[in-house]
Design brief:
The complex is a heterodimer of chains A (about 575) and B (about 80).
Chain A (H helix, E strand, L loop, with lengths): L2 H22 L5 H6 L6 H12 L2 H14 L4 H25 L4 H8 L3 H34 L3 H51 L4 H4 L10 H11 L12 H17 L1 H4 L8 H37 L9 H8 L3 E3 L19 E3 L3 H4 L1 H4 L4 H39 L5 H24 L3 H7 L2 H18 L5 H22 L24 H19 L5 H11 L11
Antiparallel strand pairs in A: 1-2
Chain B lengths: L2 H32 L1 H4 L3 E2 L2 E2 H31 L5
Antiparallel strand pairs in B: 1-2
Helix pairs in contact in B: 1-3
The chains are: A mainly alpha (about 575), B mainly alpha (about 80).
């Protein structure tokens, strides 16, 4: 059976499964819609969190990024996993004890201020929308590559599916579909990795395999270091970024991860404080299974690719080369017209352009794995993109129906009315996200990586201080969030998007402290901390009842169920 | 729970956090970034050690840290009678 047939079968089965789960797990109340009724078992919450967290980018692009940047790619590996330690130790248990539905709920109540709530809602919407547009695009791209429909059609199909289970099921539907999606995506990622590891090193465990050696007895990493240098690239296992930038990017990603609303909200769905702690552990374990495999896949894929194409006769290249050339992911330009593929770092003489996504997408073909394995990767990519999109859409919907409508505009809204509002906002959010997926504004791709910086600069300090600093008051938290967000925006606008300033001057040489826009969230976060602490000490202490809330959330017992009042 | 107990509980909690977060910092920032070149002179099988910490070791330790934290806190909750 061909790849296309297999893909339709696997995608069909998995989609039927997701829809089946959505019908089974319909949300009957606003509490089920926002936090799945607060009754999700921790291990399932861990799986759902992992699927929620691992986006199309993690599944498709990450191995490629690491493959082309070597050691520099470590910032993503450490940054996107290390944040869970912060989340588990510093935020999740206390937010669960606090027991509300959303992150702006915590900010608004802890800082006894609707201004703080609105700032938090705006930050949540910005972060989630920039992120979700990329996911819908990802759904479209996976569809177009595997099912041979165009990208827009792919986005429409994705919209209908997400609309169906997010609007109908809310958090409850999303949680259980995410559990299924985790299983699909991890299976789809691991099967080819295990095959290839065994093929290249004789060791079926990729994490160990890439530290091993091939048939020639040379360690794979030594071989890759050698190949990279021969072709003029930097040594694979050493970096090219400055140490301070690596430090800053890692921190921004870690802290941003801990501050992302769609991740935090998952910890509101478990019954008890201790469940919140352990489900963060499960989540990281499930994430780490993929994330520790990524660098192995990166090494296998890069060696295979270089060995197959470098200095090969173009006419004698295997079929997959032609297939991926058609998609534009591989481009061969025979500059010296000798019919031989020359792949080198030097841009003037290099003849092969490789899209980084190909490292995961084409890897099974390059390694000549069976067709069903190749098709599986498509189903896995879709699972990763859909699960993240759904989680983000829920944050957007609850920000509007709960934080804005219920808490600010119309507090008297009935339970039924709020649930309807939540469903409508989810539907509207899907349509907007789909629009951005079909007409991606140029800056979206640039901004997705910066969503972490924004989360780090706004939410993380406000939440952390809200728990660990009893003296923190609304003046401090609000000014900290506003200064942090503004500073991050300013730096992005100047050095990444070039909306302000002179692009000729705003180059890497003039970065503040040598820190890239991707790492600048770290600086903005530190500034937020300083502003919050200074302002809070110059203004009155928070009221007694708020100080009692802080004492209350520090003790796990009596968490009760998540509630809306 | 008395005020005094609450203070003591919180203090022990902060102590755990300090230790666990120091390890978190050590395996990622120190071993994986700051000292990566020095550690790369050592080898762990086919891995340079600093590179291994940055792309494998730190992540294993992160997972272990959370499970250790869970264990410690569950014990602490029992000790102060605040578990559920």
């Amino acid at each position: 059976m061909g790849i296309l047939a297999w893909t339709w079968i696997l995608v069909g089965i998995t989609f039927a499964l997701y829809i089946g789960i959505a019908i089974w797990a319909r949300a009957g109340s606003s509490k089920e819609f926002y936090v799945a009724g607060g009754g999700v078992p921790p291990i399932l919450n861990g799986m759902a969190t992992a699927a929620d967290w691992m986006s199309a980018a993690s599944f498709i692009s990450l191995a490629g990024i690491v493959s082309f940047t070597g050691y520099d790619g470590s910032v993503y590996l450490m940054g996107w996993t290390g944040g869970y330690v912060l989340l588990a130790l510093l935020l999740a248990p206390y937010l669960r004890k606090f027991g509300k539905f959303t992150v702006p709920d915590f900010i608004g109540d802890r800082y006894y201020s609707n201004t703080a709530r609105i700032v938090a809602v705006i930050a949540a919407l910005i972060v989630s929308f920039t992120y979700v547009a990329g996911q819908m695009r990802g759904v479209g791209i996976v569809f177009s590559r595997y099912l041979e429909v165009d990208i827009d059609t792919g986005v429409y199909i994705g919209m209908v599916i997400v609309l169906f289970y997010a609007v109908l099921g809310g958090m409850k539907g999303i949680t259980y579909t995410q559990v299924a999606q985790y299983c699909v995506l991890i299976f789809a990622f691991m099967v080819p990795a295990i095959f290839i590891s065994f093929q290249m090193t004789g060791n079926p465990i990729p994490q160990l395999g890439f530290g091993g050696s091939g048939e020639d007895g040379v360690y794979l990493l030594d071989k890759l270091d050698g190949l990279s240098q021969q072709l003029g690239f930097h040594e694979y296992t050493s970096g090219s970024k400055s140490m301070i930038d690596v430090f800053a990017i890692t921190t921004a990603l870690m802290v941003g991860t801990a501050g992302l609303p769609h991740v935090i909200v998952r910890f509101f769905t478990v019954p008890r404080v201790k469940d919140a702690r352990i489900s963060a552990g499960w989540a990281l374990l499930f994430i780490a299974i993929l994330y520790t495999t990524v660098p192995a896949v990166a090494v296998f894929a890069r060696i295979k690719l270089i060995e197959t194409v470098s200095n090969a006769e173009y006419a004698e290249l295997p079929d997959w080369f032609g297939n991926w050339e058609k998609t534009g992911l591989l481009k061969f330009d025979d500059k010296n017209a000798d019919g031989v593929v020359k792949y080198v770092a030097d841009k003037a003489t290099n003849e092969l352009t490789i899209d980084r996504d190909i490292m995961v997408l084409a890897n099974p073909e390059i390694a000549q794995l069976p067709n069903w394995v190749i098709a599986l990767v498509g189903a896995g990519g879709l699972a990763a993109a859909l699960s993240t999109a759904a989680g983000l859409l829920l944050v957007i919907a609850s920000s509007i129906s709960h934080d804005l409508i219920k808490k600010i505009v119309n507090p008297k809204i009935s339970e039924k009315g709020e649930l309807l509002a939540a469903r409508l906002s989810a539907a509207v959010a899907v349509v907007i996200a789909g629009y951005f997926g079909i007409n991606p504004p140029g800056f979206v791709a640039a901004v997705v990586a910066l969503a972490f910086g924004l989360a780090a600069a706004s939410f993380f300090p406000a939440i952390l201080l809200g728990i660990f600093d009893k003296r923190m008051n609304k003046e401090g938290a609000i000014s900290g969030m506003i200064v942090g967000l503004t500073l991050m925006f300013f730096y992005m606008a100047k050095y990444k998007l070039h909306w302000i300033g002179d692009p000729a001057v705003d180059t890497a040489e003039n970065w503040w402290f040598g820190i890239s826009p991707e790492g600048f969230g770290t600086v903005a976060m530190l500034v937020n901390f300083v502003v919050s602490l200074v302002v809070s000490r110059l203004t009155p202490a928070p009221p007694q009842d708020v100080q009692e809330i802080v004492e209350h959330i520090r003790i796990p017992s009596g968490a009760g169920e998540a509630s809306s009042h | 729970m008395s005020k005094k107990d609450m203070k003591a509980y919180w203090k022990e909690n902060l102590g755990y956090l300090a230790i666990l977060l120091s390890i978190w910092f050590l395996v990622s920032y120190v071993f994986g970034i700051l000292l990566v070149e020095q550690l790369n002179t050592f080898k762990l099988g086919g891995f340079k050690l600093g590179f291994w910490f940055a792309q494998q070791g730190s992540m294993y330790v992160f997972v272990i840290l959370i499970f250790v934290y869970v264990r410690l806190m569950n014990k602490l909750d029992k000790k102060y009678g605040v578990d559920e």
